[in-house]
Design a protein that fits this description.
The chain contains 7 helices and 16 strands. By secondary structure, the chain is α+β, with helices and mostly antiparallel strands. Strands 1-15-11-9-10-7-6 form a 7-stranded mixed β-sheet. Strands 2-3-4-16-8-5 form a 6-stranded mixed β-sheet. Strands 12-14-13 form a 3-stranded antiparallel β-sheet, with no helix packed on it. Strand 13 and strand 14 (about 185) form a beta hairpin. The protein binds zinc ion. Zinc ion binds near residues 157, 160 and 214.
C-alpha cells in the first residue's frame, strides 16, 4: 500500500487553517479543502462565515450525519438532510461539507463531468460500503471511475484506531494489527483505499494527507483524544462562472 500519493501538506491562509490536495487544486473552478483546528469549530457560525469569505463561496451545506450509507444529492434543498455523503453536480457558489473529528473525510471529483462527492467515512459507514455506493452513483451517470480524483483528509490513523476483538469478524485481516488485550488497530485509510481500488479508481489518483487526528498533529480536533465536541470541515464545491 505504498504507492498512494501522500498529500504534500500545503496550508493556506495566514494561520494554516486549510489543507489542500494537489490534484484537486489543479481543477479550474473547483474549491476544496480540509480545515484544521486553526480554522475553528465548523459548528460555530463565525467559522463557517470565515470559510465562505476565504473561499469566495456563498453557502456551506452540511448534513445531519448518522454513520450510515445514505448519500444526499447536491440538488437537495432540505436543511441538514440526514446522510453521510454528498453526490452530484455542485450548485455554483455552494460548498458541500462533511464534519469530522477522527472519522475519515473523502472528497471525489470527476474532471470530465464535473460531478463531485464528499463522504463521511467512519468505520460504520465504511463497513456499510458508503464508498462503493458513491462509486456506483458516479458510474450511474456514465463516469469512468478510473478518471476520478480522490483525496483523503486527516483521520484517526492505524497508529491510534484501537477497536475491539469483534472487528476480526467484520474486517479483512489485512486491515487489522493486533493490539494488547485481544484488541486490534484498524487501518481505516487503507480500508477506504481498498474499496476505491476495487471500484476501479486508479491508485495514483488517490491522495492521502497521512495525518492522524489523534497523534500526529495537534492541529486537529479529535473526539477520541478528549471527547472534543468541535468538528473540522472537509468541503468541495464549484465556483460560479
Ligand atoms: Zn495516530
Amino acid at each position: 500500500m505504498s504507492h498512494f500519493k501522500k498529500i504534500h501538506v500545503k496550508r493556506s491562509f495566514e494561520d494554516g487553517a486549510i489543507i489542500h490536495a494537489s490534484s484537486l487544486s489543479g481543477q479550474i473552478g473547483l474549491i476544496h479543502g480540509f480545515t484544521t483546528r486553526n480554522a475553528g469549530n465548523i459548528l460555530d457560525e463565525n467559522t463557517s462565515s470565515r470559510l465562505l469569505r476565504q473561499t469566495g463561496m456563498q453557502e456551506l451545506r452540511l448534513l445531519t450525519q448518522v454513520h450510515g450509507k445514505e448519500i444526499i444529492r447536491t440538488s437537495e434543498m432540505r436543511h441538514l438532510p440526514e446522510g453521510d455523503g454528498w453526490f452530484g453536480e455542485g450548485v455554483a457558489g455552494v460548498l458541500y461539507g462533511i464534519k469530522t473529528a477522527d472519522c475519515l473525510p473523502l472528497l471525489l471529483f470527476d474532471p470530465i463531468t464535473k460531478h463531485l462527492a464528499a463522504l463521511h467515512c467512519g468505520w460504520r459507514s465504511t463497513l456499510a460500503e458508503i464508498v462503493p455506493s458513491a462509486l456506483d452513483l458516479f458510474q450511474s451517470i456514465g463516469v469512468n471511475t478510473g478518471n476520478l480524483l480522490c483525496a483523503i483528509g486527516p483521520a484517526l490513523g492505524p497508529c491510534c484506531f484501537e477497536v475491539g476483538a469483534e472487528f476480526e469478524k467484520m474486517v479483512d485481516d489485512s486491515y487489522l494489527k493486533p493490539a494488547d488485550g485481544g484488541k486490534f488497530y484498524l487501518d481505516l485509510p487503507s480500508l477506504v483505499k481498498g474499496q476505491l481500488l476495487n471500484g476501479g479508481v486508479a491508485e495514483d489518483s488517490i491522495e492521502d494527507t497521512g495525518l492522524c487526528t489523534l497523534c500526529e498533529d495537534s492541529s486537529f480536533f479529535s473526539h477520541r483524544r478528549s471527547g472534543e465536541k468541535e468538528r473540522m470541515c472537509s468541503f468541495i464545491g464549484v465556483r460560479g462562472e
